[in-house]
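Amino acid chain:
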Amino acid sequence: MNTYAVEDLSKSKIIEFFKLHWGSPEMVISSGIYDCSALDGFAVLNEEEKIIGLITYLIKDNECEIISLDSMEEGKGIGTSLVQEVENLAIKKNCKIVKLITTNDNLSALKFYQKRGFILSKIIHNAVKEARKVKPEIPLIGNDGIPIRDEIEMIKVLN
């Protein structure tokens, strides 16, 4: 397992990954509309040079926002190592917090981030309804049959 800055990988490889796992590289959340393939990030590649983990982030005003995190092999520490890479970089860049947004149906993300020191900081009611105006392919029903409606902001204060 090797970790690389996304800038060291081909753009086409990154775009292909997002198309396969998200339908497109475009991420629409209440903090903005992002082309994830154009953001900074880190990727974990397996022995076959296939991306098995990818995180993207944005740093603005002493805050680091994780925009996307994907791990194709859960329970192996890939997601944890990618979040740690971003946290370490955020500390070097003098960020005070790392934040992210997930949806109300993503119970695995809520568990994952809380175990790593993140806290729930804000609920943005009906945010996904607004996001669908820009990206209508966002499904109505998500994980475990839960309607996707709200966004949940999580933060971690850095030392």
Remarks:
- Strands lie at 2-5, 26-29, 32-35, 40-45, 51-60, 63-71, 97-103, 119-124, 151-157.
- The domain at 2-157 is CATH 3.40.630.30 (Aminopeptidase).
